[in-house]
Write a structure and sequence with these properties.
This protein has seven helices and ten strands. It is α+β, with helices and mostly antiparallel strands and 227 residues long. Strand 8 and strand 9 form a beta hairpin.
């Protein structure tokens, strides 16, 4: 009898842990959607529309915590999505760790957005791990819906980055930060072990139900692709 109760208790604990993890994923999707929507609704301080239309992929990391900014620490978790034609594809869960996040970091909570501007950058975020700056040309992105994106830096950078902290939205330097797939969360989302590369590059990968709101938000503010 005691053994049976032990098995039941263990099963309940496992189920509770799985539910808590799923709830965290759902909240992270909501937060990522809200971050992008709020930033794009600031008419004179948003990401330039021209850059959004050129971007191949986007990465949104909501709510990085100041207390986590230690050497080797895990700075934050969020999601990446890449385009397939005019449609944003299934999201891959991602982590950012280490590196220097520039002087803009410093608030109690910081949101980070990356735009991946070309195939080279897309190949990098679809890899198992890469260090921004060391392995990929990165630059702080310009701010303003109609800001000029024709400078040499904007035209050659593989990745452009922004942060929002204490209400201020600005370009962000991410030199030395490492981006890697969040494999455990991807397995939870897709019900199987799956590589980030398959998620991001295969247009046949089905969008999980819990991610549909996030993808719809991307589609709303960046529906067109200049390529």
């Amino acid at each position: 009898m005691a053994q049976r109760y032990g098995i039941v208790t263990l099963g309940l604990l496992v189920a509770a842990a799985a539910w808590a993890q799923e709830s965290t994923v759902d909240k992270r999707f909501r937060d990522a959607s809200a971050v992008f929507q709020e930033i794009m609704n600031i008419s004179d301080r948003s990401i330039p529309q021209d850059l959004l239309e050129r971007a191949e992929c986007i990465v949104i990391i909501p709510g990085l915590k100041k207390g986590a900014f230690v050497v080797g620490g895990k700075y934050g978790r969020g999601f990446a999505s890449c385009r397939h034609g005019e449609t944003w594809g299934s999201p891959s869960a991602e982590r950012i760790e280490g590196g220097s996040f520039g002087f803009q970091i410093g608030g109690s909570s910081t949101d980070v957005i990356l735009l991946v501007m070309n195939q080279r950058g897309m190949d990098r975020i679809a890899s198992d791990k890469f260090t921004i700056g060391a392995e990929g040309s990165a630059a702080a992105g310009p701010v303003g819906r109609t800001a000029s994106a024709n400078t040499d830096v904007m035209m050659t950078a593989e990745i452009l980055s922004w942060s929002r902290s204490r209400g201020a939205f600005a370009g962000l330097s991410l030199e030395g930060a490492t981006l890697r797939p969040d494999d455990d969360e991807n397995e939870l989302l897709y019900g199987k072990a799956i590589k980030s590369k398959e998620i991001l590059t295969n247009p046949e990968t089905k969008v999980p139900d819990r991610a549909r709101g996030f993808i719809a938000t991307l589609q709303k503010y960046a529906p067109h692709h200049k390529g």
